[in-house]
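Priority: low. Protein: CRAL/TRIO N-terminal domain-containing protein. Input follows.
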Amino acid sequence: MSVQEDGVLPLVLEDLTESLKQKARVELGETEEAVRNGLKELKALIKEKQVPICTDDDFLIMFLRSKKFNVKKGFEQLKNYSYQRHILMNYYGFIFTDKVMPALHHNICGILPKRDQEGRAIIYFLPTSVTGKVSKH
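Result:
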């Protein structure tokens, strides 16, 4: 999807817009070379350290972008993410179904269908909607 008539980005994007690509170049140092080299180094570290994680380029680039293409810092964040998702999988499975879903069903939190002017997804919470007890569906 692309920018809609009102100039607002939809929640799901297939690729960055030209303005977001420019912003990534300026603020993150993201270039084709940085992406290519960063992904290559990151995948090598994942293989070397045997980190159980998805190696899809679109997934890994999130860790590179969040650390401005510093591969070592991105890898540390990736390891922490992997630990949280794999070692504590039973806890996350429990908390998602038992805690998060009722909040979504009762409109206590949600995701807006459009992004902000900077291209960021918007998650909202309505604490006034919380009554102290949320029934399960």
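The mean pLDDT is 84. Residues 32-49 form the longest helix (18 residues).
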